[in-house]
Amino acid sequence: MPRANASRTLRILVPFLVTAGGILVGYALSVGLPGYFVFLGTSAIVAAIAILGLGIVTGSAGMIALCQLTFAAVGAWVVAGLNVIEAPGGFIVWLVLGGLAAGVVGILVGLPALRLRGVNLAVVTLGFAAAADVTLVQIQFPGSVTGTSIVRPEGFGTDREFFFLGILVLAACGIIVYFLQRGRWGSSWKAVAFSERGTASTGQSVPGAKLTAFAVSATLGGISGGLIAGQVGLAFASSFSPIQSLALYVLAVMSGAHLIDMAIFGGIIWIVVPELLKRWGVPQDWGFVVFGVLGVQALTSGTNLGTGIRNLWWKRALKKGGTATNHLTTDVSATPAPQRTFSGEPILVVRDLSVTFGKVEALKQVSFELAEGSVLGLIGPNGAGKSTLVDALTGFLPQHTGSVTLDGRALDRLSPTRRARLGLRRTFQQDRVPPSLTIDGYVRFAARRRLTAGEIAEALEFFGCPPASTRLASVDVGTRRLVEVAANVLARPRVLLLDEPAAGLSHEEHVDLGRRLTQVPARFGTSIILIEHDLDLVRSTCDSIMVLDFGSVLASGPQEDVLADPAVIKAYMGETELL
């Protein structure tokens, strides 16, 4: 697909071209700005790098971290210490080592994030910042007592040259973050911010996503701290106070620092606001009040400056290009499914599965087998235990008795992530598809394997989804459900549990989706368990049906026999599908 390859090449080249242009502008500023503004510019660069790190942990991964300048202090401490002992490598090497040291500390600080969220996590990180601040005041930075100034690298000894070094470091950080955000790590950060259950169901480690976000964010903080040390020559605790970390967090939220350009804008605001207050004769501490007001506005409005600007741009693009909704408009009969041979042997075996919540038995010794290459319908009245069964099978309810075996391998005591990696996937009744990704980004993330543009385009067309470049935020819930199905099918799992995948679609589209699902085993080699209320969809799709009622298997077998069973009809009495 030459056009797709050309588009991909352009997407790779554009950030490098933009970065090169930014470096040229930075060089011109380093030459043309007055001396005082060169110093302010360096401070803005340092702040931009720190805010860029905050954009990852707060903007992308959705966690509250109030200790970014503490990570900066770690980087500054390492640079100052290596300078005192005259370690080999010079400032650039020390800067990198300081960033890596801060990244390690970031992982340690991020460990509570595996169990804590929201305000509780904010308290932990702020407490860490306060404790670090007290410690730094007591012990001071290496060389600060003796007045050992940090040696700048050769060729960057003057303030103007060091400003340009900051531009180069910012450019390198921006490029790295750009590709991380568009890679698997970036997708995992956005996914875990939107839904931890949805992230785990794709086989992605939720703890891994959170810790990598903290590690990268802290590394960038450490690099910013190393630059501060090189800028001022001597590092002091007052440059890394908790109140400044709070202000940086607020600024990151307000600007939308998960966007690289807005992180740079945030760094500029960090310097401009106090400088303007100074010129107006207002104490600079009032800058924190200004940042606080801007942050409250961003939090209460539910959007930030960067996202708001982009949303306006994308809305204009949608008006010109039309809606992105494209429900099941292709004719699947035009592309016959490939022929696959299935053994017919059980691929998923469930024996005596029971789940109890207190004194309530949600599932009572449920047993069934799913034959390879088949589509099994799971139906039952509301409250019958269908969702409980799906959660238990996929590891989200580990407190159960009985056994679950996939391809002869016992899945008991395995996490949802591990079960997904072994080939047992699921979708959800609720929307678990992160809107901050494109369809292409989500599909590649959820599939967990290398995919060509052609494979993705073919699967999206088969399920009636918009093009891969479409933003998920611009499509409706029904389309996102189809994208979720397509992404999980492309993962080629052994078994896929579809929990009401047709929600948000019209009745005709339900039936049309059913015709496509019948081809999934032959096309993709995946066996399916379909959980649905729409019996027309079940009739048009499933080889066999299992009915749950009050947590027990009421009937199981070929769909004609099951749907004609008087007990099943009685259980569904009042359901419109059987009237």
Which characteristics define this entry?
alpha/beta, 579 residues, 58% helix
Secondary-structure map with pairings?
Blueprint: H1 2-32, H2 35-60, H3 68-84, H4 90-110, H5 118-139, H6 159-181, H7 184-194, H8 196-201, H9 206-232, H10 242-255, H11 260-279, H12 286-301, H13 305-321, E1 346-357, E2 360-371, E3 375-379, H14 386-393, E4 400-406, E5 409-410, H15 416-422, E6 424-426, H16 439-447, H17 453-462, H18 477-490, E7 495-499, H19 507-517, H20 520-524, E8 527-531, H21 535-541, E9 544-549, E10 552-558, H22 559-563, H23 566-571
Parallel strand pairs: 3-8, 3-9, 6-7, 7-8
Antiparallel strand pairs: 1-2, 1-4, 4-5, 9-10
Helix pairs in contact: 1-6, 2-6, 2-9, 2-10, 2-11, 3-4, 3-9, 4-9, 6-9, 7-9, 10-11, 10-12, 16-18, 17-18, 19-21
Structural notes for this entry:
By secondary structure, the protein is α/β, with parallel strands linked by helices. Helices cover 58% and strands 11% of the residues. The protein contains 23 helices and 10 strands. Helix 2 packs across helix 10 (242-255) and helix 2 (35-60) packs across helix 11. It starts with a helix and ends in an 8-residue tail after the last helix.
What is this structure, in a nutshell?
With 579 residues, the chain is an alpha/beta fold. It is built from 23 helices and ten strands.
